[in-house]
Amino acid sequence: MRRSLLPLNALRVFDAAARTLSFARAADELAVTPAAVGQQIRALEETLGVILFRRTPRGLELTAEAEAALPALKAGFARLEEAVQTLQAGQGPGRLTLAVARGALRHWLSPRLSRWMAEHPETQVRILPLDGPVDFSGLNLDLALSFGPPPDAEGVFGRKLADEVLVPVARPGAPEREVHWRSVDAARAGPGAILVADAGAALDWALAGLGVARVPRTLAEAALAAGEVAQVGPAEPIAEAYWLCAPEPQWKSPKVRAFVEALLKT
């Protein structure tokens, strides 16, 4: 019999009836009627072509075939329960797995995450770098923080942090050396320019007083507010933005909803 055709519900009823040797007690355990238990057992016997129970003056008895199969059936249900627990453990309330665009980890997520973890010290957080399309199922992710256009993968939904602009920032007295992180800017970079991997690295160079970086305002907000860098030119609107994104089932998870709301409040 193909795995997809296994009569799992009827097998669960058989397991309960075989353990209790009573349709009535099995019905109580399964929260159904004794008649429903009897119907499931008859249907299972017809499907398998095997008699499972005999009625005797002393009550129900298992046939030899049913008795021989029962240990394997019990072990199978135990393994199924272990599998379900394993699936739930990866996305349980005490664990969060995030994939984060490298540029946003230090300058946007870290301070917010630190405050959140101080309020939830029991939670284990795993952070993975995000360098391309998000593989939610392969990485067992709860949430991703991506940079770019709106997420367009089937079933994935996003919340935009802000309508994004690039702002040129630098420390007072810093050289006018350009620090580039976008390929479109690097392609026209002049002599002496610095090319780095992401917007966070570009902002780090500006904070170190080594040049002028055009970075998303979302990343630079805290440094600008603290006076660590100053805006040294006009802002440029861009189509890309930072997105908190996840498949629809994750958005329904209470822990993900609470975590997102906490991030967006700070």
Give the helix/strand class.
Answer: alpha/beta
Give the tally of β-strands.
Answer: 13
Tell me the CATH superfamily of the largest domain: Periplasmic binding protein-like II
The total count of helices amounts to 11
Radius of gyration, in Å, reads: 30 Å
Note down, in words, how this protein is organized.
46% of the residues lie in helices and 23% in strands. The relative contact order is 0.12. The strands form three sheets. Strands 7, 8, 9, 10, 11 and 12 form a six-stranded mixed β-sheet that branches. Strands 4-3-5-13-6 form a five-stranded mixed β-sheet. The protein has a two-stranded antiparallel ribbon with strand order 1-2. α1 crosses α4. The longest helix has 27 residues, at 64-90. The mean pLDDT is 88. The protein is built from eleven helices and 13 strands. The chain is an alpha/beta fold. β1 (53-56) and β2 (59-62) form a beta hairpin. It has three domains: 3-90, Orthogonal Bundle (Arc Repressor Mutant, subunit A), CATH 1.10.10; 95-159 and 240-265, 3-Layer(aba) Sandwich (D-Maltodextrin-Binding Protein, domain 2), CATH 3.40.190; 165-237, D-Maltodextrin-Binding Protein, domain 2 (3-Layer(aba) Sandwich). The chain is rod-shaped and about 100 Å long. It has helices at 8-20, 23-30, 34-48, 64-90, 102-119, 136-139, 183-186, 199-207, 217-225, 248-251, 254-265, and strands at 53-56, 59-62, 95-101, 124-130, 143-148, 156-160, 165-170, 178-180, 194-195, 212-216, 230-231, 236-237, 241-247.
